[in-house]
């Protein structure tokens, strides 16, 4: 069982922005044992702008582990619409505009939630975790 | 040319397997076509000693980047480039509240949007650790 996450950044407009790729195997915290639980990739569509959609509920997962969260804004709404990603009590991580994605480690001690800024937005997400 | 960020996820945790490939074109907030115009380059830092909640990316640094905030589409990349299994980098949001995002174990990377309102701090758990990071940002708020 294995999960691999690769990242490629290509920034040709900048000096030093040549394309590079890094790759990691998703292991349990501090081990070389593969992460073995996964929510699958879910897709959510919201007819109306919706606040505080819970993606990771801290009570559901063990703290201090090597969980990983993937989220992509799959909306085809206007360029100024976004999904606000927050942690804990409305602490902003950032805004995912249409087509943007993120991949972050999750500690499991705080909630992670998404808020859509406009009607008719959608996103997909998946959570690799240790339970 | 535009700056692009691509993720490839491959997993056989479920019987059906999972493969995800997604490429984002990094544009300014509210625009499909105007590219992000600032880049720190990919920096590498080697820490001789352990670090506790040190600001890695500072929201109000003033110089040299003077990050615009809130209506922005900044992106942050951080990687634990250490080689020991037990090495971890804790990533926090907000130098005051230190809300823990999560830990990057050796080889792990993350990429996420950033609003430029709160610092991003890191904590390392062993001596001699190495991290990489980069910020792709926009010079003014949209």
Walk me through this protein's architecture.
The complex is a heterodimer of chains A (131) and B (142). Chain A has 131 residues and is mainly beta. Chain A has one domain: Jelly Rolls, CATH 2.60.120.10. Chain A contains no helices and 11 strands. Chain A has strands at residues 3-10, 20-25, 37-38, 42-46, 53-56, 67-73, 83-87, 91-96, 101-106, 112-116, 121-129. In chain A, the strands form 3 sheets. In chain A, strands 3, 4, 6, 9 and 11 form a 5-stranded antiparallel sheet that branches. Chain A has a 4-stranded antiparallel sheet with strand order 5-10-7-8, with no helix packed on it. In chain A, strand 7 and strand 8 (91-96) form a beta hairpin. Chain A is globular. The two termini of chain A are 16 Å apart. Chain B has 142 residues and is mainly beta. Chain B has a single domain (36-137), classed as Jelly Rolls. Helices cover 0% and strands 47% of the residues of chain B. Chain B contains no helices and 11 strands. In chain B, the strands form 3 sheets. In chain B, strands 3, 4, 6, 9 and 11 form a 5-stranded antiparallel sheet that branches. A 4-stranded antiparallel sheet of chain B has the order 5-10-7-8, with no helix packed on it. In chain B, strands 1-2 form a two-stranded antiparallel sheet. In chain B, strand 7 and strand 8 (99-105) form a beta hairpin. Chain B is globular, with a radius of gyration of 16 Å. The model of chain B has no long low-confidence stretch (mean pLDDT 94). The chains are: A mainly beta (131), B mainly beta (142). At the A-B interface, strand 1, strand 2, strand 3, strand 6 and strand 8 of A face strand 1, strand 2, strand 6, strand 7 and strand 8 of B.
């Amino acid at each position: 069982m294995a999960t691999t996450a690769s990242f490629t950044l290509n920034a040709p407009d900048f000096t030093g922005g040549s394309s590079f790729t890094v790759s990691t195997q998703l292991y349990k915290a501090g081990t070389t044992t593969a992460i073995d639980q996964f929510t699958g990739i879910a897709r959510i569509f919201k007819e109306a702008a919706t606040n505080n959609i819970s993606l990771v509920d801290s009570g559901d997962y063990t703290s201090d582990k090597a969980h990983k969260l993937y989220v992509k804004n799959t909306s085809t709404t206007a360029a100024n619409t976004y999904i606000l990603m927050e942690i804990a009590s409305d602490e902003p991580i950032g805004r995912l505009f249409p087509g943007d994605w993120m991949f972050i480690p999750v500690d499991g001690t705080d909630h992670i939630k998404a808020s859509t800024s406009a009607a008719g937005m959608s996103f997909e997400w998946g959570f690799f975790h240790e339970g | 040319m535009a700056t692009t960020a691509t993720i490839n996820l491959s997993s056989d945790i479920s019987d059906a397997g999972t493969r995800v490939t997604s490429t984002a074109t990094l544009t300014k907030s509210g625009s499909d076509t105007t590219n992000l115009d600032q880049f720190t380059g990919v920096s590498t830092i080697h820490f001789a000693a352990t670090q506790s909640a040190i600001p890695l990316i500072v929201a109000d640094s003033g110089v040299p980047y003077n990050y615009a905030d809130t209506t922005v589409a900044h992106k942050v990349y951080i990687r634990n480039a250490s080689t020991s299994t037990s090495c971890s980098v804790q990533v926090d949001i907000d130098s005051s509240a230190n809300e823990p995002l999560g830990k990057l174990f050796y080889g792990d990377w993350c990429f996420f949007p950033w609003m430029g309102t709160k610092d991003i701090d890191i904590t390392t758990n062993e001596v001699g650790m190495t991290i990489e990071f980069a910020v792709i940002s926009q010079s003014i708020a949209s």
